[in-house]
Specification:
With about 450 residues, this protein is α/β, with parallel strands linked by helices. It has helices spanning about 20, 35-45, 90-95, 210-215, 255-265, 280-290, 310-315, 355-375, 425-430, and strands at about 35, 55, 65, 70, 80, 85-90, 105-110, 125-130, 140-145, 175, 185, 200, 220-225, 230-235, 240, 250, 270-275, 295-300, 325-330, 330-335, 335-345, 350-355, 385-390, 400-410, 415, 435, 450-455. The strands form seven sheets. Strands 1-19-21-22-18-14-17 form a seven-stranded mixed beta sheet, with helices on both faces. Strands 9-6-8-7-10 form a five-stranded mixed beta sheet. Strands 23-25-24-26-27 form a five-stranded mixed beta barrel. It is elongated, with a radius of gyration of 32 Å. The two termini are about 25 Å apart. Mean pLDDT is about 85; it is low at about 1-30.
């Protein structure tokens, strides 16, 4: 669908009073108002509420936001243990040891992780110990196996022989060639975290390291805000699925794939719906069917002023108890036509984005990504923005509109990629940033400082 101006804007937005509070929502009102980017985004964020917390198993909670402080129930590690493969010894027995005058100790057995009660180390003795195994009673330090002859009597070794192939290594004698101070190569009980200490604070995003910590302290599940479920659908009778042959006047559907990938990149669980034909009844029925599995719906196409722009026609029919969708003109390029509302019994947010590929993707980054973050309970913001030196002149930018140009950013510099056309998918794929030209700027001289939104 065209990314040209559309004749729709809700002068009052959705207002500060929700449909639940007011009883019945007013119908969409078209006028000539043009919304700023900030106004439209603020209106979206104001009407998006964080999802209710739920208890999830650890792996299901990956990517979610913790809603409770998690404290450590028991010290980690829970006991003194060895950080090396070697021999547990008394420091007095290896004091002054050297290759010329090694300390020769009697090996009284093996200490392996999870292998029962370790033996007590007494004067003149050593226990062969493995990494992670508990420090045996009487021992004060661990000497790495590389500091010993490994019980071979043939000088320093580089490692231990496998217990199954050389069981005699758990007995006999070992020559120690270096002294060790008390506590050497020992991970003390509670040296990672102490009992009662805060492990993770509410608001933490649970990535792999955080999941690992929760498992280490014994948590099998955790209370979080779930990842939002985003349903993405494209509209247009001209759209054909990738892999299928194109007919006359047909194009492959790229928007639903790009937006679904963008939603996943934003931390959501995304569901892609096949392209919907330009029929208002079909589109409305499809949207209603998807409400059961959606925390937010994102559509692309059909929001401009053409006779077949069915998203406006279909979604404008939501009124009163069904919710409401407003369509607006936004002072931005690309992405001027936009729609937003909340529909269905749960007032599910719906963002209607324009259909040109670059327009839909830019609109997602500016409006949908913050909405997804708001659902997750995070600060409702987009990607990181930095200042950079623009290496090429930007000769023309429409006055009164915030322009987003594709660019390549590297080490504080950015270069425009491709033209301003909202259909140039290749240029978008070869960009890693968006160059932002403010509404009151009509050109940017080479070597000027500009705001840059980092895309990767």
């Amino acid at each position: 669908m065209s990314d040209t101006a559309e004749h729709a804007a809700a002068s009052a937005g959705l207002g500060d009073t929700s449909p639940e509070e007011s009883g019945a929502a007013a119908p969409v009102q078209d006028d000539d108002r043009v919304w700023t980017v900030s106004e439209h985004l603020d209106d979206i964020v104001r009407h998006v509420r964080p999802l209710e917390p739920i208890e999830l198993q650890l792996l299901d909670a990956q990517g979610c936001i913790l809603v409770e402080d998690v404290t450590v129930p028991a010290a980690l590690p829970p006991f003194d243990n060895s950080s090396m493969d070697g021999y547990a010894v008394r420091t007095a027995d290896v004091s002054g040891a050297s290759e010329e005058y090694p300390a020769v100790l009697t090996v009284i057995g093996d200490v392996a992780a999870g292998r029962g009660e370790p033996p007590t180390v007494r004067a003149g003795q050593a226990a062969r110990i493995m990494t992670g195994a508990p420090l045996p009673p009487g021992a004060e330090a661990v000497v790495p196996v590389e500091w010993t002859d490994g019980g071979t009597g043939a000088g320093p070794v580089s490692g231990m022989r496998a217990a199954g192939r050389a069981p005699e290594g758990a007995g006999g004698e070992v020559a120690v060639y270096r002294a060790a101070e008390a506590g050497a190569h020992i991970r003390a009980r509670g040296s990672d975290v102490a009992a009662g200490e805060l492990a993770l604070a509410a608001g933490t995003v649970l990535g792999p390291p955080q999941i690992g910590l929760l498992a280490a302290i014994g948590r099998a599940s955790v209370r979080v805000r779930p990842r939002p479920r985003v349903v993405v659908l494209s509209t247009g009778s001209e759209l054909v699925q990738p892999g299928e042959e194109l007919g006359q006047g047909r194009i492959h559907d790229s928007n639903s794939f790009a937006l679904t990938a963008a939603a996943r990149d934003a931390g959501a669980i995304a569901y892609r719906v096949g392209a919907v034909a330009d029929d208002p009844d079909t589109l409305r029925a499809t949207v209603e069917d998807q409400l059961i599995r959606a925390d937010i719906i994102v559509t692309s196409g059909g929001v401009s002023v053409g006779a077949y722009d069915v998203v406006k026609e279909a979604l404008s029919q939501f009124e009163g108890e069904e919710g409401r969708v407003d369509f607006r003109r936004i002072a931005m390029q690309p992405g001027k036509p936009q729609g937003f509302g909340r529909i269905g019994p749960d007032r599910t947010p719906l963002l209607a984005l324009p259909g040109n590929p670059v327009s839909s993707y830019v609109s997602f980054e500016i409006f949908a990504r913050p909405a997804i973050r708001a659902l997750m309970g995070l600060e409702a913001r987009g990607r990181e923005t930095v200042r950079a030196v623009c290496r090429e002149e930007i000769g023309s930018s429409p006055k009164g509109k915030r322009q987003f140009l594709r660019g390549w950013y590297s080490e504080g510099e950015v270069t425009p990629v491709g033209g301003a056309g909202s259909h140039l998918v290749k240029a978008l794929a070869h960009a890693n940033a968006l160059i932002v030209v403010p509404e009151d700027v009509t050109s940017v001289a080479s070597e000027s400082l500009v705001d840059v939104i980092l895309l990767g």
